[in-house]
Write a structure and sequence with these properties.
The protein has one domain (9-113): 2-Layer Sandwich (HIT family, subunit A), CATH 3.30.428. Helix content is 24%, strand content 20%. It has helices at 9-14, 54-60, 63-79; strands spanning 22-25, 29-33, 41-47, 90-93, 109-113. It has a five-stranded antiparallel β-sheet, with helices on one face. A hairpin with a 7-residue loop joins β2 and β3 (41-47). The active site is at residue 108. It comes from Paracoccus denitrificans (strain Pd 1222).
Length: 124
């Protein structure tokens, strides 16, 4: 696992050095609007802890952080109208490492919705 780089943009957002359009903030999670949205609903959810990728978060975060993160995602999908209990669904994406085309080395989950998202990966 690569070492966490605390100069990444999400670490700077968490420290208040870079503004964001916050949708939800909890004890362990920050959810904010993507600055280059790819769908009518496009938010990023990040844990406040220093985790590089999903596998790092899943293996090393506390139970409280893991529960808070997933409950925050459930709350946001409902509040943004894309959860299945009132909306038409969403896509949750987390990229990891070079093969996953991860651009920011801080675990984050994209939530996209508000329109049909199409295939995630083209058949090869």
């Amino acid at each position: 696992m690569p070492a966490y780089d605390d100069s990444n943009i999400f670490a700077r957002i968490l420290r208040g050095e870079i503004p964001n359009d916050t949708v939800l903030e909890t004890e362990h999670t920050l959810v904010f609007r993507d600055i280059r949205p790819q769908a009518p609903v496009h938010v990023l959810a990040i844990p406040k802890g220093a985790y590089v990728s999903y596998d790092d978060f899943a293996a090393n975060a506390s139970d409280a952080e893991i529960v808070d993160f997933h409950r925050a995602l459930a709350r946001v999908t409902r509040e943004l109208g894309v959860a299945l209990d009132g909306g038409q669904g969403f896509r949750a994406i987390s990229n990891a490492g070079p093969d996953g085309v991860q651009e920011v080395p801080h675990f984050h989950m994209h939530i996209l919705g508000g329109r049909p998202m199409g295939r995630m990966v083209q058949p090869g």
